[in-house]
Amino acid sequence: MNELFWALMLLFNFGAIILAYRFWGKIGLFIWIPIASIVANIQVTKTIDLFGLTATLGNIVYAGSFLVTDILNENHGKKDARKAVGIGFFSLIAMMVLMNMALWFRPGADDFAQESLVTLFSPMPRIVLASLIAYGVSQLHDVWSYNMWKEKLPARRFIWLRNNISTMISQLIDSVIFTTIAFFGTFPTHVLVEITISTYILKWIVAVCDTPFIYLASSWRERAELMESR
Question: Could you list the residue ranges that cross the membrane (predicted)?
């Protein structure tokens, strides 16, 4: 059943991104970045079995943020893509500080949430540190790489190539950095290696599946420019 739920989450994630872009343009994509950053860093604390591999949850939501920066890069330029990366950084730091401050408060006699919050957010500083480093390095690489390929192969028919090359290499960088920093010493070495490999494979699948959506976003942009020129 995990595989079915994973496929459903994949469709919902891409659908939400493309709807946000359809309704609110690049502002919708800027809104999605903190949603993805926060949700992915909560989901990643859950380990699941998927396609016979041990994996962490959150891969779909996090990998979707690369679709967001690629759409921004393709349709609005490198500056807006970098702005989205900065928004993601800020949202992660704000969440870490606010949720860890929430744990300082003494719970009331009728409170039922404290233990769950401690379980979820006590390891958050290490996970957020791992996420910030991995997110910064991989996303900035993705923005740079996508823009480089866009300059070398500017034709629309090559969107799939620059999208997949930039994202797949960036996802590999992200998976290695994040898994090593977040989980080293927490899991046995063989589990850590399995999580790294499975995480990358799943993100690679997400990267391939997002290609039709970036073409759709590109066609909307071209149509909007056509209408503006009339």
Answer: 6-24, 29-44, 50-72, 84-105, 125-144, 165-185, 197-217
Q: How far apart are CA 25 and CA 124, in angstroms?
A: 32
SS3 (DSSP) at 32: helix
Domains and CATH numbers, the chain: 2-229 (1.10.1760)
C-alpha distances in angstroms, 71 versus 74, 196, 207, 221, 227? Answer: 5, 26, 13, 10, 20
| Cα gap 91→34, rounded to integer Å | 5
How far, in Å, CA of 13 to CA of 35, rounded?
Answer: 11
Whether the Cβ atoms of residue 207 and residue 63 lie closer than 8 Å to each other? yes
Q: What pLDDT does residue 46 have?
A: 85
Question: Considering the chain, what is the average pLDDT of its residues?
Answer: 88
**Among candidates 47, 44, 76, 46, which has minimal Cα distance to 174?**
44
Minimal CA–CA distance to 167: which of 143, 142, 140?
A: 142
In the predicted model, residues of the chain with pLDDT beneath 50 are: 226-227, 229-230
Rounded to whole angstroms, the Cα distance separating 20 from 11 reads: 14
Residue among 99, 86, 91 nearest 37 (CA): 91
Tens digit of pLDDT for each residue in 64-85? 899 999 999 999 999 999 999 9
If you count DSSP H runs as helices and E runs as strands, how many of each does the chain have, helices first? 8, 2
